[in-house]
Write a sequence for this structure.
């Protein structure tokens, strides 16, 4: 399977690319608005994998080509670029592809981080509105700290909630979550339940501000 | 110290009463709108403690008397009774008392549970608006499953976020949290950050609907 990371050159993109490259046999397609930048980052990721004694199947290209190649397409871009990014690749997506949205809207004030809920209900719902007909959207990876995830020596022991209305698409993403060593998927229902998943990220940021040990915090539900 | 549970006859009230009675030397004051009902429930709690081979210092009375006795007063009532309950006991609270709000507003639809955010910003903020001058409000215990917590054989291994603007009051509540065996307080900042703490409860309910093992779910941040 080809797993594409649009905006795969950013922090969470890097983390997911390295983990999937190491832990799965999938081809990880790293997309960027700048194809040359995507290729440079893939070279960085390959060096990082080699430094960790691992390898993987990675390729870098522009976002549209990356979307065309992907069976699962993760929009690893900030919330304010999400709709633009999906619009820019919409013609490259095919019915049956699965679009994954990990973005969260956060606003900061003197008290801390707050969930900036879009009028659509959630950022994941914004992705769903922007997605072409026949391309289901699944929300996942909203609450993961990119830095320790990109450190392949770090042993993950955490959960990530998954939301979506299309059961087959959700199952595909659950498999992709659980292909990452130590990471477990927790189903939280349909897209209408995405706001509470995204809001958790603001809570995690606030916990990290008050406890250095929680700066890169993971969550376990049990 | 006297720790009061307004609405201490309900599910989360019972859970906190049993844990504090067993795990601390504090007097646990169980309040109810019906003083006789409070005394009956205290008899139930004493029997339960005895069944678990434990004991504790419990007393039952009406909410106003319970509030007057308490150094820390926990509003263990549903969100829709919160303001009324605080108003009804306001004359019994003294400056320096600490008011604790564990209530969360949840609405349910066909998709699942959703955080029903009040116009005040959070339910904890509603408690703060209703509290008398000089009585600081701290948010805590929002995300705890009452049933396993009331089972004293169950070994807790979980976190609860704590929010508040008054550092001394927060420290008092953090100590009360951590006096419960296996439960750790996690500071999440000021009252303005309460919404994300309360919203987590809706996520937990949704997780429980999709995974029987998460029906009574706890959270660990690490």
């Amino acid at each position: 399977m080809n797993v594409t990371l649009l905006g795969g050159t950013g922090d969470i993109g890097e983390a997911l690319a390295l983990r999937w490259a190491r832990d799965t046999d999938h081809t990880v397609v790293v997309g960027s608005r700048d194809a040359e930048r995507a290729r440079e980052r893939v070279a960085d990721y390959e060096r990082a994998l080699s430094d960790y004694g691992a390898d993987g199947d990675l390729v870098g290209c522009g976002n549209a080509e990356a979307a065309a190649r992907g069976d699962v397409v993760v929009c690893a871009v900030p919330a304010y670029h999400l709709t633009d990014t999906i619009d820019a690749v919409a013609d490259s997506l095919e019915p049956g592809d699965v679009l994954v949205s990990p973005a969260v809207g956060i606003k900061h004030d003197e008290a801390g981080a707050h969930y900036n809920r879009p009028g659509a209900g959630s950022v994941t719902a914004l992705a769903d509105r922007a997605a072409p007909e026949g391309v289901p959207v699944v929300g996942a990876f909203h609450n993961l700290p990119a830095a320790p995830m990109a450190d392949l020596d770090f042993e993950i022991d955490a959960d990530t909630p998954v939301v979506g209305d299309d059961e087959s698409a959700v199952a595909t993403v659950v498999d992709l979550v659980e292909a990452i060593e130590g990471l477990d998927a927790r189903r939280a229902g349909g897209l209408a339940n995405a706001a509470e998943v995204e809001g958790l990220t603001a809570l995690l940021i606030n916990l990290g501000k008050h406890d250095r040990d929680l700066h890169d915090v993971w969550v376990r539900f049990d």
